[in-house]
Amino acid sequence: MTVEYEELVENNDSEEGLKKLDLLIASGSDLDVVMFPSAAEYSKRVGLDLLAPLDDLLSAEGIKVTDEYTVDPSLNGKVYALPDTYENYFVLLNKEMLDKAGLPVPTNWTWDDFYDYSRKLTSGEGANKIYGTYFHSWPMYMQLGLLNQSKDNNLVNNGVLKVDSPEVRKSLEIRNQTENVDKSAIPYSETISQKLAYRSVYFAKKAAMIVTGNWMINEAGGSDEFPATFVSAFAPMPANSQGEPSGVSPANGNFMGVLKRSVNQQAAYDFIRWYTTKGEQWSNVYSAWKKQDVDQFISGLKTKLKSPDMIDTDSLTYVMKNSPTTPLNLPPAYQSELEEAYVKEAEKFVLGQQDMETTVSKASAALQKIVDANK
């Protein structure tokens, strides 16, 4: 098999790359395999009927996609791409602060446990105060009790609102409990007024733990901008309550598909099967392949880091092996409108300007209008 690789852009700008890819497809270029940087972009091309279903090829190989990959890429009951790189979420912790507080690295825990840790990791006053945690300004940080659900983890799922729900109330509680009641999280007012950035907050030791994604694994080992001066540990995403699994988070990453018009369907499929499995293991990439050798990945990763000793290997290994992901539950195309309307009401609650039930009621009404306008 001969593979010809075409780099779409030189600066890794995914948006520009997608524009060029769409132009190449529209112009009839002789392409077989395509890669998309997110589930949403993959879904969009499925909607345009550009990708070939892979189900028959998988069956011929005797492969069940959910046995091979952590992420189930099925859309409308069919598989149109294979998961490549893997992006999920966890809690990143300053292990020196944990040790000082006499706290073990969490494994199975709930948000109530998270509150307790955050209180115990908070110390000092005024400008010298160290907070237990920090929530960034992204909309997802107003949805933490929703994102960790194994299904229906969007504000709107199949046209149905999930704002008036225990999961959204839990999301609001997480922010209120830590910021306003316990005062163990950096206040939202400071986050937005000072335009705080999660990397600088964490590496400057202003907060002991942050909810973040696995792109921070490399950065925990130090960078030119943020040298690693302490050991970072890793913990699964907390569950909403006892009895629910820890570590559940939305999954994303790159997806590789075969164009429907390709005349090399089998060869293209064979290539993406290799690339998304042994190919990515050879490249030492955090992949969605279930058979990836986690120990080998971490060992290889450490050879590339500036400060490999600043990564707590045991806890990273645990998180990588014990973080179940949700099935692909793609948000609607108007997700940004929904999040903007939801955050507008949620931040009023976090800032103490309205109570929870008023927040849920107003957010529900605002989001329903958006759903109705997009029918």
From TrEMBL:
Residues forming coiled coils: none
InterPro entries in the record: Bact_solute-bd_prot1, SBP
Source superkingdom: Bacteria
Pfam families in alphabetical order: SBP_bac_1
Protein name: Extracellular solute-binding protein
Lineage: Bacteria, Bacillati, Bacillota, Bacilli, Bacillales
